[in-house]
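Example record for the data management plan.
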Amino acid sequence: MLFPTRAHRSLPGVIAAVLLALAAALPAAAGTLPVAVDGQKLPSLAPMLSRVSPAVVNISSTSHKRVAVNPFFSDPFMRQFFGLPVVPPSRELVQQSLGSGVIVDAGKGYILTNNHVIAGADDIKVTLTDGKSFKAKVVGTDPQTDLAVIQIHASGLVALPLADSSKLRVGDFVVAIGDPFGLGQSATSGIISGLQRQDLRQSGVQNYIQTDASINPGNSGGALVNLAGQLVGINSMIYSPSGASAGLGFAIPSDLAAKVMKQLIAHGKVERGSLGVDAQDLTPRIAAALGIKAAHGALVTDVLPGSPAAAAGLKPGDLVTSVDGKPVTDAQDLRNAQGLAPVGSTLALVVDRNGHRLKLDAKLTAVSGEANGASLDARLAGATFSEQSAGDAESGVAGVEVTQVARGSRAASSGLEAGDLVVGVNNVATPDLSALRRVFALHPGRLWLAVLRHGQLVQIRM
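Corresponding structural encoding:
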């Protein structure tokens, strides 16, 4: 069937006509977006990022370690059986890592970053956004919060102002800036997904900001900023099944970072106080067994004699529900309260004891950075243990260092050596002295120590 002929346009012709009409309505500059739509100016993060970006730097570190040539040679029994040297053959392993940092003091060149970015490094190089590089020195490190301060000597630096992270709300917009995968400085935007995230690491002071702004390997130590260009957090870790961003990134709040940074600059380390208690989370089963009506809190399981907790009247079985007016929901909250308070300060505790509400005041004393083996267990007599130092960290594994072993002592005869890193006892991780003390407070019968020695895992039975 024939139809009367009429003028018509093909589909490509219609599209071309529409594009021509749009082009006439847009600004003259080719490839640009309109500055406004329906009279409303388009938002852009570019002005803020142009101010902030120079304060975020790239950090590359290099470390040199001696590792065993073959795990076979690390076994003392095998070395003796085959007549091999007492010291197993080893080779030098050179490791390089990339991360980010934030300039927090332009005049003095102080840079805030993650401890794991520079832990164990022999050489640290900082590269600015203009391509200039400087050798950095370590001012102080704090593995407990995974924070570190390094310093460079340069002029014309730009520093980021710190915001009050306690005012953050879920839903606030944030931007993560760093150097993911070593590609160069990048910025990603998102929102605050959660606050006060804890129990993300084995130990330490934890109070993370959760964000869906993409954080990837290399972003560690970089900046999490608000829309005003103020620092609200130090990007620290991600949760991901693939190793890339899955929308679950975590940053250390600027308030916590500021407190740690102040002590690192002043003393090179953080001096923390301790109540001298062991505590655990209150579960529904434990609450029912003990007849506790409260749903949350830190249940005290042990009080060290002569400790601030003992002096304040705290007892095993007490439920700590509040510290300095802030609610305590679990044992991590209680650890955070101690870890963030300066030595000598007094904590106001609210305690539930057999259904009665008590108020106790406890003055924090300094935590000793060393422990005598004999005080922990007779089988460790002759050994001295200390908190792990960043310079001696092996492969980022957390543990307790063996600093001395007396010749002919019981510890020496069992095979413990100075320089060993005790990472576990009886299949329980011991990332720090507090964890080690907790294990031995249970007076274990058998004793198996998991020790990292020259990069190899060794088991010692005592």
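Summary line stored alongside the record: The first helix runs from residue 11 to 25.
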